[in-house]
Amino acid sequence: MIRGFYSAGSGLSAFQKGVDNVANNLANVNTTAYKKQSVRFSDLLTSNLASPAGEEPQDLKVGNGVRASGTVALMSQGAPVQTGQALDFALICEGFFGVADADGNLMYTRDGNFHISSEADGNYLVNGMGEYVIGRDGEKILVDEKFSQDKIAVFNFDNPYGLSIIGNNRYEATDYSGEAFAVEGVLAQGYLENSNTDITVEISELISLQKAYQFNAKMIQTADEIENIINNLR
Question: Whole-model pTM above 0.70?
Answer without folding.
Answer: yes
